[in-house]
């Protein structure tokens, strides 16, 4: 089944955000206090969460490009 590239990109991003946030929130109790995200704050924890989501998004795009 062939999907529209926009829909495919949206699904890749959704997967990355959901999986990245799940991983971050599972790891959060084990992270140093500086790397924990506070509610409604811009802090280092938000950057760590963003980094995890970005890494997953890049891995999904790489896997899709290689045909996995």
Give a brief rundown of this model.
With about 70 residues, the chain is mainly α. The chain is built from two helices and no strands.
Top keywords for this entry?
single chain; 68 residues; mainly alpha; 2 helices
Helix count, DSSP H or I runs of 4 or more residues: 2
Largest sheet: none
User: Approximately how much helix is present in the residues?
Assistant: 55-70%
Task: Give the helix/strand class.
Answer: mainly alpha
| Radius of gyration based on Cα positions | 14 Å
Number of strands: 0
Q: How would you spell out the order of helices and strands? A: HH
Q: Supply the number of structural domains.
A: 1
Strand content: under 5%
- Average pLDDT across residues? 94
Oligomer: single chain
Identify the overall geometry. elongated
Low-confidence stretches: none
Alpha-carbon distance between the two ends: 15 Å
């Amino acid at each position: 089944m062939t999907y529209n590239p926009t829909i495919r990109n949206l699904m890749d991003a959704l997967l990355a955000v959901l999986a990245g946030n799940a991983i971050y929130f599972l790891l959060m109790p084990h992270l140093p206090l500086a790397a924990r995200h506070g509610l409604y704050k811009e802090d280092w924890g938000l950057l760590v969460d963003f980094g995890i989501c970005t890494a997953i998004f890049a891995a999904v795009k790489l896997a899709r490009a290689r045909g996995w």
